[in-house]
Amino acid sequence: MKALSHESTALYDVPGPNTERRHKLYGLLSTLILLALVGWILYLLFDTDQFTETKWMPFEYKGIQELLLRGLGNTLKAFAISAVLALALGGLLATGRLSEHRPVRWVATLIVEFFRAMPVLVMIFFVFVALKVQPLPALVAGLTLYNGSVLAEVFRSGVNSVERGQREAAYALGMRKTQVMNHVLVPQAVRAMLPAIISQLVVALKDTSLGYLITYEEFLHAGKLIASNLDYDLPFIPVVLVISPIYIGMCMLLSWFAQWVSKRQRRNPKTEAVEVAPAEPGTLLPGPQ
Predict the structure, then answer these.
(1) What angle do CA 24, 29, 33 make, to 5 degrees?
(2) What's the DSSP call for residue 285?
(3) What single-letter DSSP state applies at residue 126?
(4) CA 64 to chain CA centroid, nearest Å
(5) Is the pLDDT of residue 35 over 70?
(6) Which of 82, 211, 258, 269 is close enough to 198 for a disulfide, judged by CB 3.0 to 4.6 Å?
(7) What percentage of residues in the chain have a pLDDT greater than 70?
């Protein structure tokens, strides 16, 4: 047991009593600084009359509530469409980048690198102004092109991260490339890709707020209409305090969904490790001993 304990702590020094006291002091000081910062922010909010009844009155009206709900619904609609299309585009471009045909690989690489380098807002404005389409298709197009290009790299990196021996063993069994990809590489790569995929979808969800720049009536656009209302003394901070937790909550729900999918995948027989029975003495093969 002593050897095991020594081996487990060989890469770092076990903190002594003085170090532990110092770490506790650092933790206490950090906590006090954070509490002081929160207290200072609250003081500024109260000092500038951000919690007065006039500024929070708009949220009591049914019309304002319906405006926020309609904006939230439009945000979720744009996100759902762009997420599905971005995943499909990412898979298509990743397939092109993994192709054995050089022209296909070059074209896919050019598309990925171009749209990854292009700012999302520029693409949205180009589709909206130059192509003269409606706000929702313009927003979805910009989000799809950018996030699909990023997801293509995620998919390609995930597939290439699988050990080369897995691919070679599958080909040795006579499987075709499509079978190798669907039954060997992708199931093993999904677990590694999932955090990056969800992270990119969170980016897509937050980028839907760019829709207010092209007059798309999403959640932030609804909040802007309320915040710029002079009748309620420009309730900018109350709108931020209402909208921000909802955005954070939706991003947390995406993270929770990723964890749920990951747990289900670990229980999937196709990816779950198979227990091998320990070796036991058996009947000897016939022959000279």
Answers:
(1) 150
(2) P
(3) I
(4) 30
(5) yes
(6) 258
(7) 84
> What token pair was written down for 156?
């390609």
- pTM score, whole prediction: 0.75
Contacts of 2 (CB under 8 A, 6+ apart): none
Rounded CA separation 62/75 (Å): 20
State how far the Cα of 90 lies from the Cα of 153, in Å rounded to an integer: 8
The tokens for 61 are 């009206």
Residue length of the chain: 289
Q: Which residues contact 194 (CB under 8 A, 6 or more apart)?
A: 258, 261, 262, 265
Phi-psi region of 33 (alpha: psi -120 to 50; beta: other; left: phi over 0): alpha
Question: Which regions of 122-181 does DSSP assign to beta strands (E)?
Answer: none
CB 197 within 8 A of CB 151: yes
